[in-house]
Every structure is written in structure tokens, then in C-alpha cells.
Amino acid sequence: MQRIEFYDDFRVYLREFYEDQKRRFPHFSYRYFCGKAGLKSPSHFIEIMDGKRKLTSKMLDSFLKGLGLTESDARYFTVLVHFNQSRNSTEKQQLLLQMRGMKRKVKQALVSTDYFEYYSKWYNIVIRELACLIDWNDDYSVLAKSVIPPIRKIEARESVEFLLQAGFLKKENGSYTQTEPAITSGSEVCSLGIRSYNRFMAERAHKAIDEFPPTERDIQTLTVGISRDSFSLIKQEMQEFFSRVVRIVDDDKSAERVYNVNVHLFPLSIKPADGVQGDE
Predict the structure, then answer these.
(1) Please, are residues 66 and 33 in contact by the beta-carbon 8 Å criterion?
(2) What is d(CA 237, CA 164) in angstroms, rounded to the nearest whole number?
(3) Does 169 score more than 50 pLDDT?
(4) pLDDT greater at residue 176 or residue 89
């Protein structure tokens, strides 16, 4: 199994814990775990692992006992449970910060909270591209002023330090290169950071209409009436479009500027089933 801070879903951790224990100790079973944890029914582990039942605060102590976690791992697992089961976006971000603070100092590989940090500060994505494109000679003021809108020198420094430490960038012979040409996301942890990033870029797209001439930007709008089936087809077309853009970028060996590509698809009217009540 991986170290616990590599998990961003406690149910996945429970499943892999069970598989690992079963492989190492053939006698291990759901009944054995529940007996060790002091739980009455073996079905509790299965139902919680499968997401059919919440892991309540009352049962959490029993699970910690059954898992046999160290004190620090037990703290992480507890925060992870609250993170996965919370429905409040603000609370989730606070819990993520706690999880990030619990990471061990020895760096072995990227964990989910690194991706949250990467996306939650919009300029990290820009700096990761820009640091490899321009000759800035480790002058963070040059790097900071090259971003639109400009960021502070300290923000540029902290961003580069994070990108290097987390493994998004590497430095060799005074030059910066990306460890991976493209980064994708999908986990719940990533999505929280991406919401913040998308929100900022949507605002930047609005301002770009006045800040840049048409020769340096392309913004188009289309308002249409469509069915649910057409919505799904259009969404698929958008995904395929981005895949084609990624291939173009991958083949571009003479990049000189950082751009953002935004494509929005969102409703401008309510569903017919929702109904509209007029003034009486």
C-alpha cells in the first residue's frame, strides 16, 4: 500500500487496506476487522467502503482501532473522512489545507494535495509555462512582471519553489524544464482547486475583451436552444477540441508566449420541469 497521505478518498484507502491485509494474512476478513475494531456487524465495513453508509464520528474511533494506524496517520485519516463526507466547499478547502500540512517532510512523489495547491493559485500554471519560455536568469521580478496581470516578486519566487519542490518543474544547468508536458486532473481534490482557477480565468476572459486587440485574442459567443442529448454531444465535441489543441501544443517546438483557452457551456434558462411562477 501507499502511504496514507497519497490517498484523497478514505474509501479507496479502506479497500486497498483490506486487499493488502487479505494478501498478507489469509485469515483476515471483514468479520475479523470488525471484531478487532469492536463493531457488531461485519457489514459495517463493506457498506462504508462502498459508500452506502457514512462513517460517523461515533464509529470513527472504532475504525481507527481496527486499522491500527499511527497517531499521525490516524489524524490524517480523520481529516480525510471529514473532507470526503463534507458538502460545504469552504469547509472542504479548509480540510485540504490541514491535509497538506500533515504531509511528511520526505518527498517521494506527488500527492493529491500538491495538485490542489497547483490549481488553487492561478499563476502556478502560468509560471510553470513561462519559466521554461523566457530568459529570466532567476530574476523573480522579471518573471513576476511577465505575467498578465503582474504578480508580486515574492509570489513568483514561492511559485517556482513550490513547482520545483513538488516536481512540476526541474532545473538543470540553469534552465527550467517541465517534468511532464501535460497535467490532467480528475480527483475531488483537484476539482476544488480547478474551480478557483476556472473562476479566475473566466474573469480574465471578460477583461481580455478590452485589454487586448482582436489580433491577440479570439472570443466568440453562441446562444442556442438544445436538448439534453445535444448537450451531451456538444460537451463531447468540446472535449475532443481540447484534445486537438493539446496535440497542436505538443507539436509546437517554438512556443514564445503563454495563452489561456476558455470554452464555456452553461445554461441561460431553467429546466421546463422546474416551472416558473408569475406574479399573482
Answers:
(1) yes
(2) 35
(3) yes
(4) 176
Query: Is the Cβ–Cβ distance between 64 and 74 less than 8 Å?
Result: yes
All 3 cell numbers of residue 80?
480525510
The more confident residue out of 154 and 236 is 154
Query: How far apart, in Å, do the first and last CA atoms of the chain sit?
Result: 63
C-alpha 54/C-alpha 60 separation (Å) is 10
Q: What are φ and ψ of residue 178, in 5° steps?
A: -85, 135
- State whether residue 267 is helix, strand or coil: coil
Exposed / middle / buried, residue 244 (Cβ in 10 Å: 0-12, 13-18, 19+): exposed
- For 123-128, the CB contacts below 8 A with 24+ separation are 123/147, 123/151, 123/155, 123/156, 123/159, 124/159, 124/162, 124/163, 124/168, 125/197, 126/258, 127/156, 127/159, 127/160, 127/163, 128/163, 128/168, 128/169, 128/178
Phi, psi (deg, nearest 5) at residue 171: -120, 125
Residue 278 confidence (pLDDT): 55
Residue among 92, 140, 152 at smallest CA distance from 116: 92
Q: Does domain 4-87 fall into CATH 1.10.260?
A: yes
Query: 16 Cβ partners below 8 Å, 6+ apart?
Result: 1, 2
Exposure string (b/e) for 150-166, b if CB count within 10 Å is 16 or more? ebeeebbbbbbebbeeb
Contacts 24+ apart (CB under 8 A), 243-247: 246/182
Note whether 4 and 77 are within 8 A (CB). yes
Residue 169's DSSP bridge partners are 178
Determine the pLDDT at residue 107. 44
